Amino acid sequence: MFFTLEVLPAQEGDCLLLHWGTQAKPRLAVIDGGPGRVYENTLKPRLEAIAAKRNAAPLPIDLVMVSHVDNDHIVGIKKLFRDLKKDIEDETADEDRSFKVERLWHNTFNDVLGDSIDKYYKTLTASVTASVDGGPNPKIVDAVKKNLEQKGETEDEAVHVAHDIGLILAGHGESRELRDNHGVLREAHDIAVINHPFEKNGKPTLITAEMTPTPVKLDGLSFKIVGPLEAQIKALQVEFDAFITARGLTAEAMLAAYSDTRAPNLSSIVALVTMNGKKILLTGDARGDFVLTGLTKAGLLSPPPLKVDILKVPHHGSDHNLEIDFFEKIIADTYVFSADGRFGNPDRTSVEMLIEARGKNARYDIVIPYKVAAVDTKRKSESRKPWKPADHALAKLFAARAADGFKFKVREGKAHKIELGDAIPW
């Protein structure tokens, strides 16, 4: 039986493939699609290679899951669905199509924040909402950063928050297009209803922890959703509605006021995926304390720690999302840091917390899909503090700990297949 998580290089974002099943009945899920041109340069060629080796036309993709609507997760998925929509509109014969997606799991902004954000979004000019090179509009980010600094935020915190706020605007457009393209496929009876089988009163609904009191079964996989929590979503809706009904607020000021909640990250889908006793915890960009809360409510941390085979570290290893107790309460054989150094990720502080929490004799792998030296080069170029390799470089940290006899291994610099069952032959 296959059960493999494949980590694709996705710049500063996430792009994961989940393989399971047997050679006679292989299954495939795509979890996030990365930003920019990750789809054209990495994801699409990899899917085409799998299709060729499986002699599958079109390649069946059992599940596409968008963990949340930040551009560094959703852009590649939007482009995939744009291709699927074009096949339908061109009436392309099945045997000439590249891919066929069975289901989409995607909590859109409308779902998360209610219809108010969509109405508000339509009042904004394209120059405000448009993404730039797959990221947030730098003019908006700069305006929000200045606003936050005037409110007393440190420069480092203001940069991180301003970027997240810009993504709220840019990501909403990506989210709407993906939802619209899914609608075209659904009308053509080419895909299941969105978020199937999650439904309430016979209609598709948000994917939340409360929707899986018992795990969802999908072709042999078990999905236990532990985040987001419905209480968090409702709080976001109430707070956002209050902001956008207030008069005299510019888009920048309104979103800066809203920044503490960081809507996309709070709404990340967090899923414990299990097969044959093996476990993968997918966390998107969720806050570490919210992941722990969801696991506790699900009875998975009583008592801690939760042992998993693979942990996708939240938010690319940003120390804004993590405390050391996260790594004390969730332990893994493999930790995936999907990051290339942009925005300082993975933060060295986060990696130090992991190493300290696990101790000197623990054996585990740290997976980074780019060369550590290249990651450090980008982290250094974006650092706003004097760079001291001994204090800030990941390479120096790993070398120092290895010299001290720590047992972990670093797997770097390429796509990685983490096999929890038989090796996939493609």
**Distance, first to last CA:** 14 Å
Structural class: alpha/beta
Radius of gyration: 21 Å
List unreliable stretches of 5+ residues. 125-132, 254-264
Kindly state the percentage of residues in helix.
Answer: 40-55%
Number of strands: 18
- What's the CATH superfamily, by name? Ribonuclease Z/Hydroxyacylglutathione hydrolase-like
Strand order of the largest sheet: 10-11-12-13-14-15-16-17
CATH top-level class: Alpha Beta
CATH topology: Metallo-beta-lactamase, Chain A
**Helix count, per DSSP?**
16
Instruction: State which percent range the strand residues make up.
Output: 15-25%
Work out the count of structural domains. 1
What is the general shape?
Answer: globular
Give a quick account of the main beta sheet: strands, pairing sense, barrel closure.
Answer: 8 strands, mixed
Mean pLDDT: 85
CATH architecture: 4-Layer Sandwich
Describe it for me?
With 426 residues, the protein is α/β, with parallel strands linked by helices. The protein has one domain: Metallo-beta-lactamase, Chain A. Helix content is 42%, strand content 19%. It has helices at residues 38-54, 71-89, 109-113, 115-122, 126-129, 138-150, 155-187, 230-245, 251-258, 263-266, 288-297, 324-329, 348-358, 372-382, 389-392, 394-403, and strands at residues 2-7, 16-21, 26-31, 59-61, 63-66, 99-101, 104-106, 199-200, 203-204, 216-218, 221-227, 270-275, 278-282, 306-312, 330-336, 365-368, 409-412, 416-419. The strands form four sheets. The chain has an eight-stranded mixed beta sheet. Strand 2 and strand 3 (26-31) form a beta hairpin. Helix 6 packs across helix 7, helix 6 packs across helix 9 and helix 8 (230-245) runs antiparallel to helix 9. The longest helix is centred in the middle third of the chain and has 33 residues, at 155-187. It is globular, with a radius of gyration of 21 Å. The two termini are 14 Å apart. Residues 125-132 and 254-264 have low confidence and may be disordered.
